[in-house]
Amino acid sequence: MHPSRHRLILLAASTAAAVVVGTVGTVVASAAAVGCRVDYQVTNQWQGGFGANVTVTNLGDPVNGWALTWSYTGGQQVAQAWNATVTQSGAQVTARNVDYNAAIATNGTAAFGFNASWNGSNPAPATFALNGVTCTGAPPTGEPTTPPPTTPPPTTPPPAGACTATYQITGQWSGGFQADVKVTAGGSPTRGWSVSWNYNNGQQVTSSWNATISTNGTQVTARNVSHNGTLAAGASTTFGFLGSWNGSNPVPLVSCTTTS
Description:
Layout: E1 24-29, E2 36-46, E3 49-58, E4 63-64, E5 67-71, E6 77-82, E7 85-89, E8 92-96, E9 103-104, E10 109-117, E11 129-130, E12 133-134, E13 163-173, E14 176-185, E15 192-198, E16 204-209, E17 212-216, E18 219-223, E19 236-244, E20 254-259
Antiparallel strand pairs: 1-2, 2-3, 3-10, 4-9, 5-8, 5-11, 6-10, 7-8, 11-12, 13-14, 14-19, 15-18, 15-20, 16-19, 17-18
């Protein structure tokens, strides 16, 4: 994971699959006794490298132990991963569960992330297979699907004025981590924003994307860049960064201020 970004998320009666290509690809598929859906998201990309998150949704019977496979067509190579053991042989990549996420209940999910290199282009994989069954995004044949609610659930209106920020650690490995921060405008448009927090356990930001980040002692301040400072009321934008840690890496409290 590195930036200019620019984190580190990952389904068979037919083999048809739909992929939204770009920074986000979603592949879906159906099977005989297995059904699954994969959401593959490039969370950040920089020259020669990228970070991705993969979320697997089990639409069939519960599984205990899983392997997700896909192939790269652009010469991409996985360098490191978290929440899964990822190996690569040529173009084919295999991600296997780790001890704590081997079981996936029906309609349950498992998520993992990784950093990888690319050269020339970085297309999303066209298909995925879970335990050897192509994922199409539909439950096994003959199983009913849950109908969507007739009335959408109510949403919480954004706060008036100011802004809010949500800090999420999207990947962590020995000595390092990746985090995303989502900034949401309140009831008024903004022309700029800044988000601040304190690291009390020695964490250090090493690189960032979609924000300019500065550090003064334990305090970290992230400010918008030219393309994401203007937000309509209730609109959101996200920035991310890589950091180092030693000992513990709790999520800090964050505060957000705006320029109206």
